[in-house]
Each structure stands twice: as C-alpha cells, then as structure tokens.
Design a protein that fits this description.
With 106 residues, the chain is an all-beta fold. It is 0% helix and 36% strand. It has one domain. It contains no helices and eight strands.
Length: 106
C-alpha cells in the first residue's frame, strides 16, 4: 500500500479494494488507495475525500461509495460524503443526526 494508515475503512467495489482515510500515525488523512488484485498492485488514482477522517464507516449502495462519521483528531464527525465511480467525484451529503465513530457498515 502506498500510504501508511490505520483506522481506515477497507471496502471492495468494482473489482478492486479501496483503503479509505484513516490515520498515518500523526494526522487524519483524506487519501484513498486502490488495490487491483488482477495486477497485484496498489494505485493512487482515486481523488481524496473532502474531509480527512479515521474510524469511519463506509459502504457501497446503488453503485456508489458512502463514507460517514469518524473522527478528526479528537473531533467526532457527523459529516458524510459519497464517491461516484462514474464521475470520479466526492460530494458532501446530509450529515448524520449524531456524531459517530468506529461504525460498521455492510
């Protein structure tokens, strides 16, 4: 993986694995690394999220990648965003009613 990270979200979509956000040991990160199992290679070809976050939830719903909650260095988040694989863009969506971290999504 190109970027050191922990407390990230790992999800499978469109034949690849995506490591999303997390912490590099000092800061929360907004980066996304993509692993292609057919090529056995990591890529940095997905734009960064709008908000750096760790310990967040992520899910695929109707072909889009959703990320919600998490923390940003002792600041719990309620914000959410969605990645559209077709347009390759992140968009802010409605925030959750409560701040949450360490969430699991399926």
């Amino acid at each position: 993986m190109p970027n050191n990270r922990y407390s990230s979200c790992l999800i499978a979509a469109q034949g690849s694995l995506y490591a999303i956000g997390g912490s590099n040991g000092f800061l929360r990160v907004d980066t996304v690394d993509r692993y292609d199992p057919l090529l056995d290679r990591w890529f940095q070809d997905v734009p960064s999220m709008q908000t750096a976050r760790a310990q967040h939830g992520c899910a695929i719903y109707k072909g889009m990648l959703y990320v919600a909650g998490g923390d940003r260095t002792y600041d719990l988040l309620s914000s959410s965003e969605r990645y559209d694989f077709a347009t390759k863009q992140w968009t802010s969506i409605a925030s959750m009613n409560e701040r949450r971290y360490s969430a699991s999504c399926f």
